[in-house]
Design brief:
It comes from Streptococcus dentapri. The protein is an alpha/beta fold. The chain folds into 2 domains: 197 residues, Formyl transferase, N-terminal domain (Rossmann fold), CATH 3.40.50.170; 91 residues, Methionyl-tRNA Fmet Formyltransferase, Chain A, domain 2, CATH 3.10.25. It is 25% helix and 27% strand. The protein is built from 8 helices and 15 strands. The strands form 3 sheets. Strands 5-2-1-6-7-8-9 form a 7-stranded mixed β-sheet, covered by helices on one side. Strand 3 and strand 4 form a beta hairpin. Helix 1 packs parallel to helix 2.
């Protein structure tokens, strides 16, 4: 039985780990994930989804703040693993660790060489791509630059956002890994090099990218909103206070960018640099996330056509 070390952190990774465990073909001898973090307003310490799966299966868990040079890495190198599987782990793997096993492969949520980096799903949505996918690749020192073992794609629908695509791509990545891994280990599936000249990058989202610029087109703003839902969430300002927008829809309309051009009991439509945006799910400052109907029946009653969002 092939001995594996699995490394990952979010739900995407947990889905891949569960697939390996359910297959009963591989011996997961250790799981490495990010340290527990304080989350939410109450700053409650929360385990990663991968840690939850690992503990449910009585697997040893390692959580180094930084893998390179850590005592955890030194111990991992003594376990006798045949290979390492990573999926959205969140740290670079040192060359010493990669060289200590027969193979190390990663499940990456893009069609490489497009969108190397930590936020490929966000960028695929924000850029309005019509498809995305998963690549199984060999790990090398350079970020997401290894030879490709397998690829699979799926269409991006208008109703998709980061959350829905994470779920779809996690299943796609799990199945593609389980399909391709046996042949790769046996040596009958040879990895193919990427065309590095075609590489594009998707670095982690920066706070300034979350802010909506109403001068942009309605379609571009629609893509930005869904490309940040459910995290980190796009925002604008209303009366000088941050106003988050979780869901919106590009519609026809004309007016000054950021100006409310339609208000009813069920609709709030804001003009953009081209077209308009109908807000669907929002979160005013200091309030919970809510459907636009609830906002209009409560906190948004005082808004009028002609009022504006923005700085």
């Amino acid at each position: 039985m092939t001995k594996l070390i699995f490394m990952g952190t979010p739900d995407f990774s947990a889905t891949v780990l569960e697939g390996l465990l359910d297959s009963r073909v591989y011996d997961i001898i250790a799981v490495v994930t990010q340290p527990d973090r304080a989350v939410g307003r109450k700053k409650e310490i929360k385990m990663t989804p991968v840690k939850e799966v690992a503990l449910a299966h009585n697997l040893p868990v390692y959580q180094p703040e930084k893998l390179s040079g850590s005592s955890e890495m030194a111990e991992l190198m003594t376990l006798g693993a045949d290979g390492i599987i990573t999926a959205a782990f969140g740290q670079f793997l040192p060359t010493r660790l990669l060289d200590s096993v027969d193979f190390a492969i990663n499940v990456h949520a893009s069609l490489l060489p497009k969108y190397r980096g930590g936020a490929p799903i966000h960028y695929a949505l924000m850029n309005g791509d019509s498809e995305t996918g998963v690549t199984i690749m060999e790990m090398v020192k350079e970020m997401d630059a290894g030879d490709m073992i397998a690829k699979a794609s799926l269409p991006i629908l208008d109703e998709d956002n980061v959350g829905t695509l994470f779920e779809k791509l996690a299943v796609l990545g799990r199945d593609l890994l389980l399909e391709s891994l046996p042949a790769y280990i046996a040596g009958s599936l040879i990895a193919q090099p990427q065309d590095h000249s075609q590489a594009t990058f998707s670095p982690n989202i920066q706070p300034e990218e979350e802010k909506l610029n109403w001068d942009r087109s309605s379609r571009a703003l629609f893509n930005q909103v869904r490309g940040m839902c459910p995290w980190p969430v796009a925002h604008t300002f209303l009366d000088g206070k941050r106003f988050k927008i979780y869901e919106a829809q590009a519609v026809s309309g004309q007016g000054k960018p950021g100006e409310i051009i339609e208000k009813s009991k069920k609709n709030l439509v804001v003009a953009t640099g081209g077209g308009a945006l109908s807000l669907r799910v929002v979160q005013p400052a200091g309030k919970p996330k809510m459907p636009i109907v609830d906002f209009l029946n409560g906190f948004g009653r005082s808004l009028e056509v002609g009022d504006s969002f923005g700085d």
